[in-house]
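Check this:
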Amino acid sequence: MTSKKFTLHDRLCIGLEARGNTRVPNDGTRGTHQRRYPFSTKYTLFERANKHGYFYFVGKAGALRTGKTVTKSVPVGENFYASVMAAGLNPGHAAESLMAKEKT
């Protein structure tokens, strides 16, 4: 059995989820929720757990930005980036998270 190699994008997504942030679905229903979410096809969107109305944007190549919208977002600091990456390296949580993501 071959093990899945995790990309930077995968590790960042897993790390943000492990830190309590919520992934916003990219299924075309963002505008139908009670609150409107920013829309982006280039970034995976996470709602910040500690700051209402702010989001994390994870790029396909491993960029991590924060802000209210993509255009007003700024890159996170290297210390925070490293801590999210460290949280995303937990193999048990990573496997569970990716299996759940692939089922949806």
The helical segments are 8-18, 78-87, 91-103. The longest strand covers residues 43-47.
